[in-house]
Design a protein that fits this description.
Elements: H1 4-24, H2 37-53, E1 73-81, E2 95-103, E3 108-113, E4 117-128, E5 134-144, E6 155-163, E7 171-177, E8 182-191, H3 198-204
Antiparallel strand pairs: 1-2, 1-8, 2-3, 3-4, 4-5, 5-6, 6-7, 7-8
Helix pairs in contact: 1-2
């Protein structure tokens, strides 16, 4: 989202061009004509803040002004990893998880929570596909709890979640890590909230 100094700069340039056009047309210019400049900057800043945080989700703006899915909230799901236990050669059962999405019109952050670790986005983005669907992508850093780091180190990974509608009810995608593991992630339920831990997220679904 544009900052107040950026808004002031763009409006200042617009006013300068507008004043120049009036001057070259021979119309008189007075200082009173520029008096509302500060109020206009304030009103526009408030409008952009309102739009960035809430109004971008309104259906009236969908399609022509806003082209990004609304995935804000707490998603409940499962992770299926292809990791094999080196001692037994066997895989592991699905891992319960929660994905906490904080989203505005201009920003997106994704936090993945499990019983043993949490992942936070290093970078994230949303791409519009040719068929008007979307792809949510992120690179993340995973931090296992200290008690589990003897077998699970801090690592980095990436995740890709296709979204087929502007307000999807299900997200199913894939992930891969620098530990040479990969897998599927399926998110099937979304609630409002911003929990910081797996336990707090579990309480929302209790």
């Amino acid at each position: 989202m544009l900052t107040r100094p950026q808004i002031s700069a763009f409006l200042g340039i617009s006013v300068a061009f507008w004043a120049a056009m009036l001057f070259f047309q021979g119309l008189p210019l007075t200082l009173e004509m520029f008096a509302p400049f500060g109020a206009v900057v304030g009103a526009l800043s408030f409008t952009l803040l309102l739009f960035d945080k809430w109004a971008w989700k309104w259906p009236i703006f969908r399609g022509w002004l806003v082209k990004r899915p609304d995935i804000d909230g707490v998603w409940k799901g499962e992770i299926q990893s292809d990791w094999l236990n080196p001692e037994t050669g066997e895989g592991i059962p699905p891992i319960d998880c929660f994905v906490v999405v904080r989203q505005t019109a201009s920003k997106l952050s994704i936090r993945l929570l499990t019983r043993e670790s949490r992942s936070e986005t290093v970078s994230s983005g949303i791409e519009v596909c040719g068929d008007d669907t979307f792809e949510v992508s992120c690179a993340y850093r995973n931090k296992p709890k200290s008690m589990y780091r003897y077998r699970s180190e801090v690592h980095y990974g990436a995740m890709l979640l296709p979204a087929d509608t502007a307000r999807p009810e299900r997200l199913e995608g894939e992930y891969w890590t620098d530990r040479k593991t990969r897998g599927q992630i399926v998110l099937t339920d979304c609630k409002s909230g911003k929990p910081m831990t797996f336990e707090e997220a579990s309480d929302l679904y209790a």
